Amino acid sequence: MKTLPVFYAGMLGLAASLAQAGDGSDSYDLVARGRYLAVLGDCTACHSLPGQPAFAGGVAIDTPFGTVLGANITPDPDNGLGRWSFEDFQNTMSNGHARGGKRLYAAMPYTAYTKVTREDNRALWAYLNSLEPVRHDVETNQLPFPFNIRASLIAWNWLAFKEGEYQPDPNQSAEWNRGAYLVQGLGHCGSCHTPKSLIGGDKNDEFLTGSVLQGWMAPDITGNAHTGLGSWSEAEIVHYLKTGANRFDMASGPMAEAVEHSTQHWKDEDLSAVATYIKSLGDEQQPRPEPWAAEDATMRTGALIYEDQCSACHTPDGEGITNLFPRLAQAPLVNSRDATSLIRVVLAGSRAVATDAAPTGPAMPSFAWNMSDEHIAAVLTYIRNSWGNAAEPVSAGDVETLRDDMKP
């Protein structure tokens, strides 16, 4: 009997949200659309702990300034959104103000969600109110002083936030505009892939050109020829987002989670729209730097290590094996301006994400136990400057720093 009040609270919340939506004749379609929008926004990533009720919050989100926890966004009246109105929710999505005017930290990516239309927010609101309320109290603000003082966000928003729905570009196709709306809005791709300023805001003039986040390098995903996706076809981008792999790369780290919980479930037409949009960004004729000299002592050492440790899977010419072992030759992540992800994968190993379309994820073992910092640096320098690749060398100090950061 104790569950009845919770159940009825959820039903009352749903009824209220649907009443705001109109006459209720399309209420189930509205909830279904909202459910899909929640997938597009990957709400699970920040609001659902593994093994716990969906959207009950508590997920730790590491930022350069400390940790915040994802909020409970179920319709629970005491710990969630049960006392909120749609206007409260709209205000949160559009300008980062929670109910009562409390300012939110941009770990909740309202800087991207501000571009979401009011109509889509209404559908998302209807879906959230259809969930079962969960009594889970979450204190979201875990930041140390002085970052835990929310008044500082007044200045932060003035410097780093621009409010407003996405405005379609009349000079572009409907597909391009759909892709831009998804990437800039609910997809919030810039939250990971756009470089950040000293205060943690996006450097919008470098949109999607790559950024280090939580010990991973979120790579350049523009159409740049050398460091971005200029050599990927639109079909290959779609395949990667749908399956977690293509001939160039396999999703790992935070991107693997995004594929698992979000992009593999997107409609094909939305994936195609995203591919169309991001391929249009950047410079396809981006100049390539000169590779490190093959005669360099580090390159010669790296070549020997590659032959012994890496070539059996990634092949002697770096071509790899499609959907099994990623290609290293002329691969965007390999040519990235920052080698953090490459170092991390060599140290810790990696297992590709398992998706509905590709349920068996191949793995790479850890080499931290049998390769020194100097040897990892040498082999990565060799890989980053062979088979058409060209990038800055990796130092033993880079490897040592990340190895220390990864210790429990």
TrEMBL record:
GO terms for molecular function: electron transfer activity; heme binding; iron ion binding; oxidoreductase activity, acting on CH-OH group of donors. Heme c 3 binds at residues 310, 313-314. Residues 19-132, 174-282, 297-387 form the Cytochrome c domain. GO terms for cellular component: plasma membrane. It holds the Pfam family Cytochrom_C. Gene3D superfamilies: Cytochrome c-like domain. Residues 1-21 form the signal peptide. Heme c 2 binds at residues 189, 192-193. InterPro entries: Cyt_c-like_dom, Cyt_c-like_dom_sf, Cytochrome_c-type_DH, Membr-bd_ADH_cyt_c. Keywords: Cell membrane, Heme, Iron, Membrane, Metal-binding, Repeat, Signal. It is found in: Cell membrane. This is Cytochrome c. It comes from Stutzerimonas zhaodongensis.
